[in-house]
Design a protein that fits this description.
7-stranded parallel sheet, globular
Length: 276
């Protein structure tokens, strides 16, 4: 097991949806773990800026503008990765989008439902379809697909998003079974409320409400999701495949206490008299 500070030294990793938020944080974390990083997203300017940041920090980053709903573009992304680096060891499929604002299912437009499926599910399927053969050429690898706590516990009003994220976990597990023996591990992450641009734009009140629904009484940071992705891509997680790991401050663990007990007093040491 590689326990060094750079567990992905000399490896090549790919991140889709890398232009901002969790994707950008993951790309930076993979670089810090020692990997060369291929950056994919639709926003070419944001990708270029991130690649410059990583390269200026002594890393190696290759920006490849890509729309994951375009199967030909995804195939070109993997081909470009192999031409540049000759291998692919890890991939974090983070691109997400489409869908609809919160509303009851019968009010959802069919095109909006299809758009969520096209990005969140089909886009990951197409990515894995090309990532897996590239990894098999090098003797194995690790894939992390970005689901959501909404892929493990439904949320009303978000039919398209919930459906795509539940299906993504099923896709992850099926692929994990297909390639476990060949040395390609495939897992999913299920973040809860994370302070990305969307939640930042919603304002402080929305952030406080989100934090109040979490047993840990705070929202997560993109860097915390990124750290889990790096771990799943590393040899430290070598016996883990087909898993869906929540990163949610205890949200899916169950119901928090109705009344929280006061914090305990300082523990008395051996031989000390406890306060009356």
């Amino acid at each position: 097991m590689n326990t060094t500070a750079r567990p992905l030294e000399n490896r090549v990793a790919l991140v889709t949806g890398a232009s901002r938020g969790i994707g950008a944080a993951t790309a930076k974390a993979l670089h810090e773990a020692g990997a060369a990083v291929v950056l994919a997203a639709r926003d070419a300017a944001a990708l270029s800026a991130l690649a410059t940041e990583i390269n200026d920090a002594g890393g190696r980053a290759l920006p490849v503008p890509t729309d994951v709903t375009d199967a030909d573009a995804v195939e070109r992304l993997i081909r470009r990765t192999m031409e540049e680096f000759g291998r692919l060891d890890a991939a974090v499929n983070n691109a997400a989008g489409g869908g609809h604002r919160p509303m009851p299912l019968a009010d959802v437009d069919v095109d909006d439902f299809d758009s969520a499926m096209a990005v969140n599910l089909r886009g990951v399927f197409v990515a894995m379809k090309h990532e897996i053969p590239a990894m098999l050429e090098g003797g194995g690898g690790a894939i992390v697909n970005m689901s959501s706590t909404a892929g493990l516990q439904a949320v009303g009003g978000l039919a398209a998003y919930v459906s795509s994220k539940f299906a993504l976990i099923g896709l992850t597990r099926s692929a994990a079974l297909d390639y476990a023996e060949a040395g390609v591990r495939i897992n999913a992450l299920a973040p809860g409320p994370i302070l990305t641009e969307q939640l930042q734009a919603a304002g402080e009140q929305a952030q406080r409400m989100a934090a109040g629904a979490i047993p840990a009484r705070r929202i997560g940071r993109p860097e915390e999701v990124a750290a889990a992705a790096v771990w799943l891509c590393s040899d430290a997680a070598s016996f883990i495949t087909g898993a869906a790991l929540p990163i949610d401050g205890g949200k899916l663990a169950g119901m928090a206490p109705f009344a929280r007990p006061p914090a305990p007093a300082s523990a008395a040491g051996p031989g000390d008299k406890a306060p009356a």
